[in-house]
Amino acid sequence: MADHNIMQYTSTNDEQESALQNKYMDEAAFYVDALSKQLGRKPLCCVTTFGCQMNARDSEKLLGILTRIGYLPTEKEEEADFVIYNTCTVRDNANQRVYGRLGFLNSLKRKKPHLKIALCGCMMQEKSVIEKIWQSYRFVDLIFGTHNIFKFAQLLVTMFENQEMIIDIWQETDQIVEELPVSRKYPYKSGINIMFGCNNFCSYCIVPYVRGRERSRDPKEIIREIERLVADGVVEVMLLGQNVNSYGKNLKEPITFAQLLQEVEQIDGLKRIRFMTSHPKDLSDELIDVMKHSTKICRHLHLPVQAGSDRILQAMNRRYTKEQYLSLVEKIKTAMPDIAITTDIIVGFPGETLEDVEETIDVVRKVQYDNAFTFIYSKRTGTPAAAMENQVPEEIVREGFDKLLKVVQDTARERAALLQGKVMEALVEEVNEQDDSLLTGRLSNNMLVHFPAGDIQIGQLVMVSLDTCHGFYYTGHVVDKKLSEAQLRDSLRELEKTQQFPIK
Ligand code: SAH
Ligand code: SF4
Ligand code: F3S
Fold first, then answer.
1. How far is CA 343 from the centre of its chain?
2. Count of Cβ atoms closer than 10 Å to residue 394 Cβ
3. At 177, is the pLDDT very low, low, confident or very high (cuts 50, 70, 90)?
4. pLDDT bucket at 64, cuts 50 / 70 / 90
């Protein structure tokens, strides 16, 4: 790789940095304006996101800058003049999808030589990926990683000024640059980064290597951002971090995640609070107590278990046992009987036997998850698990996976059925994709309900009767607010009776 392609912009302090980037935005706008004159129309940009909520939020920042410098957004790559892929590398299939689609982008660029193609995100933090793109995908114009996304405007200017591929990857950063533009996907809800990176090093996981060490944002900045969002029409926020339960530990004035939640709760006009993701080892009694007494925190907890066998949990470096996890769930369900618990599970971790998978299935039966994301283990180069010798043969993985999936689906269906006929509050999110006379709302427990639109607006909170359960969603109708509050109380009381404790 030629050295002159490799940029390494140095950093200034965070405030100077945002002023600097704003200047680069003005400069980039000249190039976009010139392109606009050449094309006889405003150029279009397409931001395609792979991976988790953290990447989705980063994409809103990318789009914020692109629209600020004069691009119009489009969701169709084929009509765009600038395409950027914000990539994920947590499992190999995410990488393969990117390579597959790059072939398509190449064919687009042949037809439209002014098309600019950029790649960023977690996958770009891997050296082997950069080498592969350098060798086989030379048509890519700009590559950067997760640590310097705040330099996007500056990198765009460099891209416009050069014909060759621009690569800028940082290994780390301690910077958190505020005050850059963001273009939100939804007017009524928003993700908020409360921390970046991860220190946990679960042995299968690449995230700590591509997102760096854990850094928490200043609580004042978080509150200020949410206040601004609320003033702009947001009623629901999702606080984002790889392990929100360790939020605030590395701040100059340490604060706990539960304390942050209490401050967020005070924000007038904010109606709902969600957060992702909770590591079971760090979930405190204080958090359970704050959730229990909150009127805004949604009744949903995503609590990844990953495996049920103690031997596998230990090899995964999860730092809890099956017993400890189940006790934690019991504590949570006792405090909040109506809470929905969801999880992530990996099948096929090195050395995992079908007996081990039975332990995982046992956890699913005991916890009664409202939903579970099940993944087949994917070997990630550079992680400790990739070097383990006892990788599991594919047919064994498949057998365990299919068995687990069936139990997961059966229990989720049973849980969903419990709410049929109940009245619950829903945030109206969008017009139904299949039938535009229906609206789709999200319940506090994260399930979806479809109901006739009437004169209801998107972004409103309404009471909905969950008339029919269809396994993983409901159809229903909106009910009168006053009447529904009494119904809601009855519904909750009934629901509490259906919960069986203890779970062990
Ligand atoms: N920080 C979050 C998870 C982020 S990654 C947490 O700790 O809960 C999202 C999920 O991807 C993980 O929960 C895990 O189930 C899955 N995952 C991570 N690495 C994986 C791998 N190598 N193979 C398969 N699934 C993996
Ligand atoms: Fe990965 Fe574990 Fe960190 Fe989650 S907590 S991002 S699974 S290392
Ligand atoms: Fe993927 Fe990066 Fe998120 S690897 S899961 S996009 S933190």
1. 14
2. 10
3. confident
4. very high
End-to-end CA distance of the chain: 57
- Ligand 2 atom nearest 198 alpha carbon: 3
> By alpha-carbon position, which residue is closest to atom 7 of ligand 3?
207
Residue nearest to atom 3 of ligand 3 (CA): 52
**Which ligand is the nearest neighbour of the Cα of 380?**
1
Question: Is the shortest distance between the CB of 54 and ligand 3 below 6 Å?
Answer: yes
CA-closest candidate to residue 402, choices 359, 443, 357: 357
d(CA 229, CA 232): 5
Which strands form 300-302's sheet, in the order they lie side by side? 300-302, 340-347, 371-376
In this prediction, residue 473 carries a pLDDT of 96
Span from the CA of 108 to the centroid of ligand 2 (angstroms): 37
Atom of ligand 1 nearest to the CA of 243: 1
Determine the Cα–Cα distance for residues 396 and 398; give it in Å rounded to an integer: 5
Give me ligand 3 centre to Cα 223, in Å: 25
Cα 471 to Cα 373: distance, rounded to the nearest angstrom: 16
Of 131, 132, 155, the residue nearest 8 (C-alpha): 155
pLDDT digits (tens, 9 = 90+) for 121-174: 999 999 999 999 999 999 999 999 999 999 999 999 999 999 999 999 999 888
- The predicted pLDDT at position 13 comes to 65
Nearest Cα residue to 432 out of 478, 480, 475, 479: 475
Closest ligand 3 atom number to CA of residue 211: 7
Closest by Cα among 418, 424, 426 to 458: 426
Listed in order, strand segments (DSSP E) in 382-502 are 423-431, 438-443, 448-452, 461-469, 473-478
Determine the distance separating the centroid of ligand 1 and the alpha carbon of 28, expressed in angstroms. Answer: 37
Query: Taking a C-beta distance cutoff of 8 angstroms, is the pair 122, 51 a contact?
Result: yes
- Taking the C-alpha atoms of residue 282 and residue 324, their distance in angstroms, rounded to an integer, is 12
Q: In this structure, what are the phi and psi dihedrals at residue 486, rounded to the nearest 5 degrees?
A: -65, -40
319: left (phi over 0), alpha (psi -120 to 50) or beta: left
Residue 51 Cβ inside 6 Å of ligand 3? The answer reads yes
CB-based contact 124:94 (threshold 8 Å): no
Token pair of 70 as six digits: 């004069």
Of all atoms in ligand 1, which is nearest to the CA of residue 202?
7
Position 173 scores a pLDDT of 83
Rounded Cα distance, 183 and 62, in Å: 8
SS3 166: strand
**Among 90, 92, 315, residue whose Cα is nearest residue 210:** 90
Is any ligand 2 atom within 6 A of the Cβ of residue 384?
Answer: no
Tell me the whole-structure pTM to 2 decimals: 0.93
